[in-house]
Amino acid sequence: MTDEALAARIHAAVTEATRQYLAERRLRVDDFARRHYSFRGALRVNRRALGLDLARTPVNVLWAIPHLLARGGAKLGRTLRLETLARCLDRLPPGFKTDVEREIEWLIYSELLELPFEQARRRCTRDALLETILAHPAISQLLLPELLRLDELAHRQDFRRRLEDYLLTYTSNRAVAADLSGSLLSLAAGVAAFKQFTPGAMAIGSAAATAIANQLAIANFMLGPTLGSLYYGFFPATASAGLLVATTGGLLLALGVLSAGAGVIADPLQQALGLHQRKLMKLLDALEQELTGQGSSYRLHDAYVARIFDLWDLLQAATRALS
Hints:
This protein is mainly alpha-helical. Strand 1 (117-119) and strand 2 form a beta hairpin. It has one domain. Strands 1-2 form a two-stranded antiparallel sheet. It starts with a helix and ends with a helix. It has 15 helices and two strands. The longest helix is centred in the last third of the chain and has 33 residues, at 241-273. The chain is elongated and about 75 Å long.
């Protein structure tokens, strides 16, 4: 088989496996929504709003108007060819990410998508997409012979140390080389025992995590632009400075408390109406476009294709050099 034919075969296999992975994720949406957006689930998630979110949420509400003006200013700047000004305005953040948003983001990554993700002290190492790709017949036929050979070599004395030393030429970091050698040997052992790729054996990180994160546009937990008019209704121009500060503080605290309880009511209602399910389906549709190249580029698709070729080249080089 020519290199061009092999590359085309791998690209097709990755695309097919990606669609299979996303089809399986879609089957999980209803259960995920019931588990985390029903009353009990919403109560568990939204209780995180009773911390610093009491301050973040009202600040985000108040920040919505200047952020909207900044976005408009950036568009106007580009129209007037003021690119520097437009880039500066584009860099203004949309607000502070709340603890509730972080929790939902974590749940989507770790439970629904099962993709590598780090958040504060939590880390999800599962890469269900890569596992599905590796299990595709075209990919497994390419890698199985090398992995079986690696498993045979693993029984030799001091082979693990020799493999780590060899992998240093690829990683230039002994800790990474040790971790990679362990992953390769575990993957080879699973293939030798079961003649298939064992789930979780090759969780070596995701090159696509950052780009995927761009698709996780989780709905902001703000109370909407109508609060702008409500806010100014509370603060007439004739109000004294002391009254303004006191009233502002009280209103911000009230908004924070209100937002903390709003999710407990709104989430079960949206889940019952199927709104959360539709949002998650749209997320998976956007992710499919990104992963299969239906959108603007093949960036994520190529990242997984490159990983397959890198793994194949590494296995070939290692088994030949250490035989």
